Amino acid sequence: MHSRESSGGGFDGAGQTHPSCSASTLTIVVGDTRFCEEKTLLVQGCDYFQALYRSGMKECRQEVLHLQSLPARGFFIAMSVLRGETPVLDGDDIVEAIQCAAFLQTSPLMKHLIDIIDSDNCLLMCHTAATFGLTELCHAAALFIRNVYADVGAEVRKAFPSELTSYVESLTPTMFVAVGAHVTCGVDKTVHPACRTICYLDEVGDSWKVLTDLPLEASTSMAGVTVLDNRLYVVGGVHGLHKQVVDSCFCYSIDTNSWNRFSSPSQLRYNLSLIGVDGRLYAIGGEYNREAMSSVETYEVTTGRWGFAAHLPRPAAGAACTKAMSRVFVCLWKPMETSEIYELLPKRDAWQLVTTLIRRQSYGHCLVGHRDNLYVIRNGPSDDFLRCMMDCYNLTSGQWSSLPGHFANSKGSLFTAVVRGNSVLTLNRSMTLEFAIENRTWKPRRQMKGFPRSGSVWTFLLQPPGALLLQ
Question: How confident is the model over 369-381, as pLDDT tens digits?
């Protein structure tokens, strides 16, 4: 197991306790290993300990608690996650972590396990989660398997019980969806209706089909567009000949095939970056009255309220941003050669500089997250502007690496890349190209029909209801 942070204490691999516990801590004996953990951390992160301290049972007054049925390594992993660490786990770690997640009922550990699902561990995650009754984790792993079924289907049918195999095969794969970003809203009759449609790629028939129409009042021109919990959100943007700022926000549910309005940010903005993580939208930077802004606002979906978060280190419009391991990252360019990657730390309400990339005569166009890697896709030297260069930053090791070779825009607009499983889908007007990520290297895997729109394009993923694929 590897982590981006050092452990806060508890497990030293020799069955020993770290410095003696105080009144605010609890000694927990797991097997023959003793842990000393903060009671507040345990109660806030684990339903098991929350229920224990509310029960009034004698155990809640003891200074030492024995949990003999749990693996010590799994408990150590659970505590690491509760302290905010993001450990990378191997197969044995995963099994023990799932066992502890089921017993302790700890949501942060469950969320972390979902974040690290990949092609190497998805079968183990799905089967083990089903065994221990973690339905949320089982579903997430099953959906990942369904998206890579061409690669792992034979192994699933061989290793899984029939009920679990049937469940995986009952799911529908995630769709690659696109919408043109140069769309004028309102009643402008000069705009062709086809430009105001959101389309999905029928990968079996190799054709683009209409999923839904944009609302008349909505615009994706210089708007923020993202997907959160399988809903599409459109925030801000401009419309009309005079580029007025759109003062309404829209949400599309693919489950009901319907649009709804929701409240706008306190500061109207366009050319913003929008990303969704953990039930929140983040409207990052952008412009108003042609001035770049550094302000950031968050929208809590459950409450329907906007609030301000920490400002960016400097004003930025159209900044490249992504999420990886449920963490939000933004790439800010500094003339002439520097790209800085910052991470938003919600608990501290601050942006933290993660790393800096210096490349001569280039700047970042796109930021893509896959597992614990961040890929910066940028233009090449000034004498070869159409050349796409790629660099990879590993969050766990803190190391940069340059990907061999290069990609030209003629082979797909990498500036619209989205990740599905271990693949990256990109497009332009002539082709949709799927890359397979193998050892941090992108290799062309499959070519499909291009998206027949001019101008910039937004791309994203949506999970369709089963009925859609039966039509």
Answer: 998 899 998 876 6
